[in-house]
## 1
Amino acid sequence: MGFHDLRYAGRMLVRKPVFALVCILTLAVGIGANTAIFSVINSVVLEPLPYPESRRLAVVWSALGREGRAPSSGPELISLRERSRGFDQFGGIWVQSGALTGEGEPEQVKLGWVTSNFLPLLSDHPQFGRFFSPAEEGEGKPQVAILSDELWRRRYGADPKIIGQAVRLSGRLCTVVGVMPAHFKLIFPEGASVPPRIDVYVPFQWELSKQPRDQAYIRIIGRLRAGATIEEAQAELDNIATELRSEFVEYAGQGLRLQTISLQGDVSRNVRPALFALFGGTGFILLIVCANLAMLALSRGNERRNEMGLRAALGAKPRRIVRQLLTENLLLSFLGGTAALALSSAILRLLWSLEPAGIARATPTGVDGMIFAFNAMVSAICGILFGLFPALEAKRFNLAGVLSEGSRATTVGKQTLPQMLIGCEVALTFVLLASSTLLLHSFLNLLEIDPGFSADRVVTFQVSLPDLRYPSPERAIEFIRAAQRNLSTMPGVESVGVVSHLPFDDNLPNWYSYFWREGAPEQEQNTLMADHRSVLPGFFDSLHVRFIEGRNFETSDEQGRRKVAVVDDLLAKQLWPHESALGKPLNIENGDFVRDVVEVIGTIKHVQYHSLTDSVRPQVYLPYTMAVRSNMSFTIRTRSAPETMAPLIHKEMAKLDKDLPVANVRPLNAYVSGARSEARFITVLCAAMAGIALLLAWVGIYGVTVSSVRRRTKEIGVRLALGAQPREIFAMMLRRSIRPVALGSLAGLALTMIVLPLFSALFVAFKKIEPGYLTVVFATLIVVAMLAASIPTQRLLRENPIDSLRHE
C-alpha cells in the first residue's frame, strides 16, 4: 500500500460521500460494540486489579460441613499466619455499620474492622497520614481510624488537618491517622459481604487468637510468596486444614476445609461467562457488518467495472487493481474504527449504568493502549474481510466482457455471492434474535417469581445502635420496641417489622450456622446450615410472608424470654419430611453464638434472601430478645407511596435519639430490582444486539434486492411488455429474495440449537428452548425479508415498461 494508493482511495471516497458515510457508520456500530465489550472484559478479567502485586493476591475461604465459601474465625487467621510458608502474609476484614456523630448531622457509615496489615496489602500508601501499626491492633489499644477519601471530602471538607484530630465513631473518640486515596475501593468476590466502598477503617480491638474457633466472620486475603502458585498454596492449605481438624475438636466436628483462589479470578468468576457470551454476540454483529459491507463493495465494484476495464486496458495488472481496492476498504475500515472509539465510550456508559453484579465492582477504564490496539486490529480485519470479495472479483476481471457493452454474460450468476452472504448474516441474526427472545421470556419469568414476600409499598431503613449508648441488651430492646411503636402511629402505616437482615442486601455479613434435631446422633450434627434472622413481631406481617402452619411471634414470647423459633418450609421438610414441625425441639446457634434448643412454633414459606432463583439455605427466625443485634432494619408497609415516608421516618426516629443516624431509606423493591440486575444486564444487551443484527439484515436484503432489480430492469421490462402481470413479477422477486433468507434461517436454527444451551449456565431462569419462540424468530426474518425486498420491486413496477426497456 503506497501513498498514491491512499490518496486515490481518499479521492474516491470523497466522490461517493453517501457510500462512505454508510460504510463508516455501519463499521462504527460493529467495531464500537466489540470495542466496548472488550473494554469491559479487559477491565474485569484481563487488567490486573489496582493493587500492589495484585497477581499474587488470593482469597482464602473456609468450607464448613456442606457449606463452601464461608468466612473464617480469628484463630484460623492466626493459624494460617503461623503455619503457612506459601504466603508472605494474611490480612482480614469484617464489615459492620457505625455511626459518626459530633460535628454535623449524625451519619451511618460502613465500618471496616481490619488487621493492621490489611490496607497495606491493597494500597502502597494512604493519601494522607499513615496505615495502622501492629501496636494499634488488639484489646485495650489506642482508638484510631482511617477515613475514605469520599467521606473525608463530604463530611470534613477535604481538610488536610484532619490527621491527628478525633472523630466520634459509634460513641467512641477515634484519632484519624490516615485518609485513603481517592481511587481506592475494595474489590472482593460476590458473596463476601464486603462492599466496594468502606467509609471508615479501624483495627480489630480484640485478640483474634482468643475468639471462639467456630465463630467465623472474617474475610481473609493473602499475598503469595514470590514464585509460588495457587496450586502449591492450595496443597499447603489442605495440609493445614488436616492439622487443624486433628488438633481442635471444633474444626473436626465441622469438617473444616480451606480453599484459596486468585483474587483476580474469583472477583470475575460469576460475570466472566456472561461477558464472553456477549463478546461472542458482538462478534456475530461484526461478521454481519462485514457481510453487508462486502455486498456494498461488490455493488460498487459493479458500478466501477468500466473504470476497472479502462485501467486494465491501459496496462494495470490485476494485483495492482486488487491492491487499490483493498486500500480503499482498509481506509474505510480505519475511519469506521475511529468513529467506533467514540461510540464505544457511549456504550460503556450504558453498560456501567446497568450495574450488574461483578462488573459494578470493577473500575471503568478509558481508551488505553490495549483498547486502541484491539480497535486497530479489528478495524484491519474488517477491512480485509469485506474487501476480500470485491478484490477476488477484480482478480477474475474479464476485460472483453466489460468492453462488449450490454453483454448478457456480465449479468449471469452475479447474485450467487451476495445471496450466500445474505444467508450467512441471516443465520447469525437468527441466533442473536432467538437468544434475545428466549432470554427476554426468561427475564419476564424472573419478574413473576414469588420471592416469598411482597415488596410493594414497603419502605425500609437501617439503624446501628452504638454500644456505648446502648451497652446492654435491655437498652437495645427497649429502643427498638419504642421505635416500632412510634413508627406504627405514622399516617398510612399498616404494619412495622424489624429484622436483622433484609432480603437481597449483601452489605452486611450474613448470619448462618448449623442446625439439627435435638438428640440427633453425632454424625448428623454439623452437616446442615440455615440462615439465622432476628425479628420482632410484625416483621412477617409487614412483608406478607405466608404461614404454612403454626403462629407468629407474640409479645408474650419476648416478655417471657421463651426459647422459640419460626422456621421455613425447607428446614421443616429436611428434618421432619412427613410430619408437622410444630412443637419440635431444634438445636441451633442462639444470639450469643452458642448452641441452644428452641421450640418450633411456626412454619413459613421460604423467603428468597440471596437469589431470586436459588434457595441457598433454609431459615431460622428468632425473637429479637433472644438474638439482640446492634444493626437492625425496619420494614414499613404503608398505604402511601414509599418515597414520601422518609421525612416522617427521620422525624419519629429523632424523637427517640437525635444522634442516631437513619440510613438507606429506600423501597424494598429497590433490593428486589438489584437482585435482577445481572439478568437484566444480559437481556438488555442481547436484545440490543439482536435489534442491531435485524436492522443490518434488513439493510443487506434491501441492498441485494436493489442490486438485483437494477441488473434485471431490462428483463423485467420485457416481461411486462410481453404481458406478464405485475403481481407475478413481484412474487418472482420476493421468491428470489426469500430463498437465501429461508436457507440462512435453517442454518441459524441448527447453530441456535448448539449455542442456546450454553445460556442455561449464564442465566439460571433460562430453562429450555421453546419451539414456538423459534418459529416466531423464523417468521420475523421472513417478514423482514419480504418488507426489504418489496420496496425496490414495487418502485420498479410503478415505472412505465417502455422506460424499463430503455434502461440500457
Note: The first helix runs from residue 3 to 15.
## 2
Amino acid sequence: MYEYSHGGNANFEPGKENIIDLSANVNSLGLPAKVTDAIIREIPNITSYPDSFSIALRGKTAAFEGVTPHWVIFGNGASDLIFRLPRAIGANKIMVCAPTFADYERSALSYGAEVCHYFTSKDKGFGLDEDFIKTVEETKPKLVYVCNPNNPTGRLTGAGLIKKLLDCCQHIDAWVAIDECFIDFAREGKANTSKVFLKDYANLIILKAFTKMFAIPGVRLGYALCSNETMISSLYFHGTDWAVSNLAQAAGIAALDGGEIFVAQTVAYVEKERKVVADGLASLGYSVFESSANYIFFQSPFSFDLRSALDTKGIRIRSCGNYHGLDGTFYRVAVSTAENNKKFLDAIKEISIGR
C-alpha cells in the first residue's frame, strides 16, 4: 500500500487547516509578485497545449544557469525527472545515500532496479567522504544519486569530492545525478555547484527546481541540466509530451526576471534566521547539525514524539524517523518567517522545559 512520505501536507489533514506548517522547505519570502502576475496573464492560453520543449523557458533558464539551452530539460517538478531517470538510463542498480530524499529509491523500485544504500554517520555529521567513493567503485551501480545540500540534513558536499565521484563513475560506466534543488540557498552554493563539470562529464545530470527557491510547489516546475544530448532525448522519450503547463512555463520565465537579486536576498535572510533557530534549539539541549540549506536538521534528547507535541501548539515539523538510518528522535524544521520562527522556538521551549 502506497503511503505519502514527505512533509508539506499538514493543511490537508482534518482539523489542521490553520497549522503553521514547517515540514516543507519552501522560501519563506514567498513567490515574487511578478510570478503571480505572469500566471494571471497566462490564463487565457490554457485552452492551448503547452510547448513540449519549453523553448522560451529553456532559453531564460540557460542564461540564468550559464549553460547552453540544449542542456536543459523541464519536467513536472524535479521528482518527475527523478522518476524518468532509471528508465532513461536503463539502470538495473542504483546507489543512494542514507538518509536522503525518498523519491530516489522509490523511482528505482518502480523501475525494478536494485537499490544500494550508503549510510552516512552521525559521528561525521552525516557528510560524505572518500569512503563513499570507494564504496561506489566496489558496488558498481549504474546510477548514483547525491543530494547537495542533502535532504534532510542540509549538509553540503564539496565540489572536490563530487569530481572524484564523477571520475570514479566514468571509470565504472555509471551515471551521477546531483540534486541541487537547495543549493541556491547556500552561501557556498556557487563555489560547490556541479555545473562546472557539465562540459567535461557526459555522465553527469544535475536536478533543480523552482519549487523551493521561488516558492511555487503547487505549480510543479523542475529541470535537469546535462551536456549529453542522447540522455536529454531519452528523458524526453520517457516522459509525457506535455509535462509542463502553460502556467508553469510563464511562472518560470517571470521568476528568473531579476532572479539573481531575489536569490541573493533569500540567502542573506535564510542565513540570519537559520542561526536564530539553530541557536535557540541548541540552548534547549537539542543536537543541531550543520546546514547550508533553508532548513535545520536536529536530534531531540527526549523520548516523546516532538512532532505530535508541537501539533498541539499549532506547529508542524518533519519527523525523520521514516528515513533510512534515522530514528524517531531526528527532526527537520524549515527556516520560516521571523514571526513563525519565534512561535516555533517559544512552543518548543514550553514543551521542553522541565522534561
Note: The first strand starts at residue 20 and ends at 21.
## 3
Amino acid sequence: MTMRRAALIVLAWNQWPVTRRCLDSLLATQPFVAEVIVVDNGSVDETPRELAGYADRVRIVTLPENLGFVRGMNAGIAAADADADVVLLNNDLVFTQADWLDRLRDAAYADPAIGIVGCRLLGPEAEGRVYHVGGFIEPDDLWGQQTESGAVERDVAQYPDTRTVQCIAFALAYLRRDCIARAGVLDPAFHSYFEDTDYCLRAAGLGIATVVAGAVTLRHDQHGSTRDDGGFRERLWQASKATFSARWRERLSAAQRGTLLWQGPTRMPHAHAHLARLLVRRLDARGLRACHRSTAPEIADGEDYRLDLAMRRRWDHPADAALVCAPAPAFAQAQGRVRIGFGLSDWTRVPDDWARAANRLDLLLVPDAFQRDAFVGAGVTTPIEIRPVGVDRAYCHPDVPAPREADGRFVFLAALDDRARDDPGALVDAFRAAFAHDDVRLLAWVRPGRDAHAIEAVLRQHAGGDARIRVVAGWNFPWHQRAQLLAGADALVAVRRDGGWNPLPGDALACGLDLVATDFGSAAPLARAHGHAVAAKRAVDPATGLEWAAPDRDALIQALRDAFARRADAATRRARGLAFGSAHDIEADADALAARIGDLAGLAPPAPAPRRHRPVDAVQSPSGQLVVLGMHRSGTSGVAGLLARMGAHVGPEADLLVGPDNPKGHYESGRLHMACVRRLEAAGGDWRDPPLAAPAAAVDAFRREIGALVAEFDAHRPWLIKEPRLCLLARELLPVLTRPVFVHVVRDPLAVAASLVARDGMRADEAMALWERYTRDAFAASRGWPRVLVDYDALLADPLATTRRLHADLVALGVEGIALPADAIVRDWIEPNPARPRVAAQLAATPRQRALQVAIATRRILDDDADPASIAAEGGR
C-alpha cells in the first residue's frame, strides 16, 4: 500500500504526433504523486513503436483494437491503482500550466460532495479562445454546450473561480476515487460522445457535484484524434446522441417547471439588454423554460446560444409568466398568466403613460429604492418589489487582463451614449479644470447609438487637442469583453443627469475601480458607499419636462481630484473588487428571482435535491490512516498515546517530540511539526495568528513534505499523525491520504483557553477566538469523511469507558489492526481526574462559541448535512 496517487490516463488512437506532444508537455509538468497510463486504443500507425520509448516514464496498456473512447478509458481505470483518483485525458491536450494537477486536487477536495472536476480549456488559436468552462445540455435539441453562453469567447480570464456546473467535457476529468466507487465507470452504452454528460448527470443523481476549477487553464486541440476521418466522428456523435436522448430527454424536460417569456431588447437600450443577457440563461438554468421575444425590431446576437435558443423556442399562449424588461410602455405587451415588469426610470417620477402601463402588471420589479419611488410617485398601485441586480463575477473581477498605461498614469474612463444625459462637454471641461499636470488620462468611450457622432464632435471640440483626453468612437466589442475596457482604467466616471440604473458602476467596482458618480438616482448609493458622490441640484429634462439632476461643476472637479489623490495600490484594488463582487453576486439574485417567479406563477417547486455525497457513502473500508485533530491544550497528546497503545504506528521514536509541558511525550512527529510551521509561515502567519489564505506554492510544498511522511508511514498501517496545526491544514492533506479516519479531540473550551492564557500569556478573548477558529476549521475539513469524537474531559473522568468507546467507534468504521489495551495500560497512561478543571472567572464564551460548544456536546457537529460554520453562527442570530 502507498499514499493516494492520481492515475493520469491518456487515451491514444493513431495520430502519434498529437500523442507525443501531449505526453511531452504532460511529463514536463512533473505531476506530483501520479502515474501516467497510456492506453493505446488499437493504433495502426507508428504509435505502438514510438510509445516504447516512453516505457520508463509511463505505463502502457495495449488494446487489440479500437474499442472507442468509453471502453478505452474504462480499460485505463481498470489498470489504475484501486485507491488512486483518476484523471481522464485526451491525447490532444497540451499542458501549458505546471501546477495543473495540484490545482485540480484543490478543487476536488474543497468539499466532500465534489467528485468530478474539469478545467478551462482553450483552443489552438494564438490569441486564446475559450472552448470549455463547464457547460449544459438542454432537452430541446440535446445540443450540449461547453460554455454558459454557448459561444467560443476570447480568453479574458473569465470564470476564474471553482464553480458547480451541470457537466464537463471529459477531454479532461478528475474523478475522485470515492465518486467512482459510487457512480461506477463510464457507461459502455456509449462508444464516444455524450458519455461525459451522462456520467455527470448520473453522478448528480447521487449527490455528487461536478465543478470546473477556474485556476487551471490548458490547451485542447479538439478532435485531434478523429480529424480527417471521412464522417466517422459524425456517425459516432449521432449514435451516442440517440442513446443519450432515450435516457435523458424526458428527465431533462421534466426539470423545467414552467415557461417564462422574457420580453425585451437584447441590444438597445443598454441597461435592459444587459439584464436580458444576465438573467435569461440563469432563469432557464433554474428550471424556468426561458423563451424570448423582443419588444422592438432588432438584429439578435447569434453568438449567444442561450438567447438564441430562447428566441427559437415556442410556447403555449399565455406563458406561465411573462417578464417584460423594456421601457415601461412595453409592459402592456406582457403575454403571460402572470405579468411582471422590470422598471427603470431616468427621472424622479415616471411619465403618466408609464404608470398606466405598470398598473396593468401583477408585479413590478425594480433594482433599488430610487426606481421604486419614481413609480410610486407617479401613482403606480401595482405591488412593487426591489430586486437588486448584482455583477457577473465570472467576467467582472480584479484579475481581468487589460492593457494599462505604460507610464503608470491614472486613467479615468467615461462611457457616453446620450448627449443630453451625459453632457460630454461639461465632463471634459471639469477634467481639464481639475488637472493641470500630465499624470492623468481621460478615456471617453462613445458607445454606438443615435447620438454617437454628436457626442464625439462635442468631446473633440472641448478637448481642444489636449493629449491627455482620448476619444474612442465608432468601436464596439463583444459583450463578454466588457470588463477588459473597465480593467484598463483606475476609475469610472458615471456623472449623468439622469438617475437611471446603469450596470457599469457595479461592474467597475467588482473589477476594483474607483467610482465617481452623480449623487442622484440608482448610482448614488454605490457612489456614497464605494466611491465619490458628486453633489447635484434638481433640473428638468427638456424632452419630457420631468425632474432629473444637474451635477455641480465644482463638486465634480473635487471628486476627480479626490479619486486621483486616493488612488489605490494593486493589492488594495484587488481586495476591494473581490469584496464588492462577493457582496453583489448575480447568482444569488437569480436564485431569489427564480424562486419569486415560481411562487407568483404557482409553479411546482424544484425537485428535492439528492443528499449531498459524502466519501463515507462509498462503503470503502478505512485504510488505517488516522489523523488526530484538536486544538492546542485539548488533550491530543493523551489521545494519540492511547491510539499508539491500541497498535497505531507513530513513527520513529527519535522523531517524536517531547516538551516540558508534556514530559510523557506529544506523540507528534518533529518532521510533521516543522512542515506545519513552515506552511503557516509561508502564508505570513503562525499558530497564534493563522492566515486565512495561502499561496498555491506554499500548499504544494506542504503537500510534498507531508506526502513523503505518509509514504514512509504507509508501510506500518495503521498509523497516526497528530499536530494541532493540522486543524487548520487538514483539507490540504486530503489529496495525499487514502480513506483516512479523523479523530477529533475536544475539551471544555474554557479550560483550553485558561491553559493558553497561563502558558502563552494570551488574552482570554484571543484564546477563545483561537479555539473557535481551530475547531471550526477542523470539523469543516473532515465533514463527509469517516470520523470519531473523543471528549478529553470524559477520558479523564472515566478512562476505561471512554477508551472502550473510542475503540468500538474505530472498529465500527472498519479500522483494522487495532486492539483494546488492557485496563492497566490505560490507567497507567491516562490518570483519572474526575474533578472539573478550575477556570479563571474572567473567561467567557461568545454566543457563537457557546453554540459551537453545544453542537460538540450533543455531537450534532458530526452531522455531515450541517455545516460547522452555520452551526457556530446559530448563537449569533
Note: Residues 232-254 form the longest helix (23 residues).
